[in-house]
Amino acid sequence: PAVSEPVGPVSQVDRAAPAPEATEPEPPRVPAIALEFEGDGFRAELSSEGAVLTRYALTDYVSWDPPRNDPIDLLLSPAGDPMRVGATPFEELGLGDLRRARFEVESSDATSATFVFRQRGMTLRKTWEFDPRSHAFELTVSLENATGELLSPRFAVEWPATQIRGNDYSQLSLVTRRDGSCDRRPGESVGGSCCL
After folding, report:
1. pLDDT under 70 in the chain at which residues?
2. b/e map 84-123, b = 16+ CB within 10 Å
3. Buried b (16+ CB within 10 A) or exposed e, 40-52
């Protein structure tokens, strides 16, 4: 019908319906970027999707159970699926689940990368630093609040882990440092759902 022609009856409910609330447009999706790092005895890969560690292979060790010459990839599940270490949900910020949010690469060099996610006056920054002479690495998470509102986020960092059976892995442990103190869990206790 032409614009001037009536389309049909308009009910009282239609007239009284409130206008849709204006919402802030979603930021444009930034393509995911993979950053690779290599040091003495390791190869690592970070993804800007969630600013997570997606690969960590020990290149100075090979698996003997079963025998092969591949480096030991610590982030493969027993089914061969890659795990994502360092996901930070931050759902309580009201920005959605940030586990797979696209972060921008703020800076990177041969041993570190900083990712940033900005929305509605909040800036979430995640910095990964790799020690090129060892297997050690560090993740620092910070949240800047310029909203003028009081925020109470949970600084949850996800680290999926599974048990790897065999003599090659008998010394494997998971160590975390939080607020200056360390928590070490032997490999045989890894694989259940727990908080460190």
Report:
1. 1-30, 63-68, 78, 80, 161-178, 183-196
2. bbbbbbbeebeeeebbebbbeeeeeeeebbbbbbebeebe
3. eebebbbbbbbbb
- Measured between alpha carbons, how far is residue 165 from residues 63, 97, 172 in Å? 12, 33, 10
pLDDT digits (tens, 9 = 90+) for 80-103: 677 899 999 999 999 999 999 999
Question: What do you get for the CA distance between the two ends of the chain, in Å?
Answer: 65
What separation in angstroms does the CA of 120 have from each of 26, 87, 144, 186, 187? Answer: 10, 20, 11, 41, 41
Q: Would you state the structure tokens that stand for residue 120, as one six-digit string?
A: 């509605």
pTM of the predicted model as reported, rounded to 2 decimal places: 0.72
Give me the numbers of helices (H) and strands (E) for the chain, helices first please.
Answer: 1, 10
Which 8-state DSSP code applies to residue 53? Answer: E
CA distance 125 to 106: 9
Can you tell me the distance from the alpha carbon of 52 to that of 76, in angstroms, rounded to the nearest whole number?
14
| Three-state secondary structure string covering 119-181 | ECCEEEEEEEEECCCCCCEEEEEEEEECCCCCCCCCCCCECCCCCCCCHHHCCCEEEEEECCE
